[in-house]
Design a protein that fits this description.
Elements (H helix, E strand, L loop, with lengths): L1 H39 L16
């Protein structure tokens, strides 16, 4: 029973890590798309130039 657990535990950890990394990739892609949309669709300021769309 112990050898089976020693094999299954790393498999579960690696499966969980792979799933988390895949989710993080999808989050990173979503943030990149939102950033690009904000960069393209930013408004102009009173001087006619492009203003910053972020607060910092």
């Amino acid at each position: 029973m112990v050898p089976l657990l020693l094999v299954l535990l790393p498999a579960l950890i690696l499966f969980g890590a792979g799933f988390a990394v895949k989710v993080l990739w999808w989050i990173a892609i979503a943030v990149l798309v939102i950033w690009l949309l904000g960069f393209v669709m930013r408004s102009t300021n009173a001087g006619g130039g492009r203003g910053r769309w972020y607060r910092w």
